[in-house]
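Protein in question kept underneath.
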Amino acid sequence: MATVRAQPTIATRPSFQTGAFVPQEGLDTAVSGMLDQVIAWSGALRGVREASARAAAAA
């Protein structure tokens, strides 16, 4: 199991003004940090996925 520590909180109620989504200040930075961690974990676990697929194919 991979742990992604960055978990941005998105408050939807105050983010909608006049029917349009207005992101909170700093939300883009928080989401970028989370996505960086997800991408890093997906690369780190690539070998595990490939080994699992090879083992399943060999069985």
The helical segments are 12-15, 27-44, 46-58. Strands lie at 16-17, 20-21. The chain is about 60% helix and 5% strand. The radius of gyration is 18 Å.
